[in-house]
Amino acid sequence: MDQRLKIFNGKLITPSGIVDNGCMLMADGAITAISDRNIDAPDALEIDACGKYVSPGFIDIHVHGGGGHDFMDNTVGAFLAIANTHARYGTTAMLPTTLTSSKEELLETLRIYETADKQNKNGSQFIGMHLEGPYFSVKQCGAQDPRYIRDPDPEEYMEILSNTSVIKRWSAAPELKGAIEFGKYVTSKGVLASIAHTDAIYEEVLIAMENGYSLATHLYSGMSGVTRRNAYRYAGVIESALLLDEMDVEIIADGIHLPPPLLKLVYKIKGADKTALITDAMRAAGMPEGESILGSLKNGLNVIVEDGVAKLPDRSAFAGSVATTNRLVYNMITIAGVPLPEAVKMATATPAKIMKIENKKGTLAAGMDADIVIFDDEINIEMTIVKGRVVYRKTLAYNETAGS
Ligand SMILES: [Zn+2]
């Protein structure tokens, strides 16, 4: 049996509110008890939270890299380094995300995932792969390599899905030829179909939703807004996602991809229950600013990281985010004026619900996975716990006298 852990003297962020001076107990990777008073557990290793917040761990459902590595580097070492890097910033669970690439490369990434997942002991937990592409609109490809963009090919996606069970999410443009069948098929396999890099209009989004698509990938980025065709206006994916209550959205809340009024607008319309915060981070997350590469080391694009974002060398466009999950939460509070518990929800319970893992992750309650972060008022991470294992600690000390 694993060492039991006890956290005391913390502000626990629970579904029913913040519990001051709370106490919680963990054993065998799960939360076993939560209380507003001390829990007696003489054999447990004790962690004094020193009055800081104790929160469910952050869940990042869209992340490409960090710590100098990209998942598409296709090495186990890269996967583990990215997981370790983001754990230091509060991510306890993540969906490694691919970029548009060849089928062979995708299959290789899926194989590496399975090996890395078994070796991942000190980082954010991998909770499945997110394939971003290659079935996208060329007009909205953004930083996705147009050479690999194509229409959905049933033979290809059925083969990919038959090879593995680790794909949990797939982003595609629903207006493409074959994209409705694609949405129906992947949904029937338990894969979340998400609308991305798309030029669709409202009428196409409605059909997509009827056929399984339920999430808008990085709202505002790589998608259509209002367009005019022969004097008539059409609502794009942005307006559709804001309007349709059934549609979940995710936002890159780095404060740069979306400026403050858009962060406020999304929160005002969709609310904390329908909006997930994502980093969409590339390899330079958690690294000093300067030159970097977007995408794989082999096929990637040279970019420059400055002012907290990656840009094309001529500075004409952004080329990826370098956000970390704790900054997303901090930004929603300080830039968008969202109350702290709601901002935390957008990085915890909401992404858990979108990925249908809310019975295990995303809230502090007995029976849930012991994925915990402890942070101060500015969301600086003091400690990260993944399934009951302390994978990162800054200053908080264990009570070494406790335990047997
Ligand atoms: Zn992405």
Can you walk me through this structure?
The protein is an alpha/beta fold. The protein folds into 2 domains: 5-55 and 364-393, Urease, subunit C, domain 1, CATH 2.30.40.10; 58-354, Metal-dependent hydrolases (TIM Barrel). It contains 10 helices and 26 strands. Strands 1, 2, 3, 4, 5, 23, 24, 25 and 26 form a 9-stranded mixed sheet that branches. The protein has a 6-stranded parallel sheet with strand order 11-12-13-14-17-18. A 4-stranded antiparallel sheet has the order 19-20-21-22, with no helix packed on it. Strand 2 (17-27) and strand 3 (30-35) form a beta hairpin. Helix 1 packs across helix 2. The model has no long low-confidence stretch (mean pLDDT 95). The site of zinc ion has 5 residues, from loops.
Low-confidence blocks of residues:
none
For the largest beta-sheet, the strand count, sense and barrel status come to: 9 strands, mixed
Q: What would you report as the Rg, rounded to the nearest angstrom?
A: 21 Å
Question: Ions, cofactors, ligands: which are bound?
Answer: zinc ion
Report the CATH topology name of the largest domain.
TIM Barrel
DSSP helical segment count: 10
Name the CATH superfamily classification of the largest domain.
Answer: Metal-dependent hydrolases
**Average pLDDT score:** 95
Total individual domains? 2
Termini distance? 13 Å
Strand content is 25-35%
CATH architecture of the largest domain: Alpha-Beta Barrel
CATH class bucket of the largest domain: Alpha Beta
Tell me the total number of β-strands.
26
Helix content: 10-25%
Q: How would you describe the shape?
A: globular
> Which structural category do the helix and sheet elements fall into?
alpha/beta
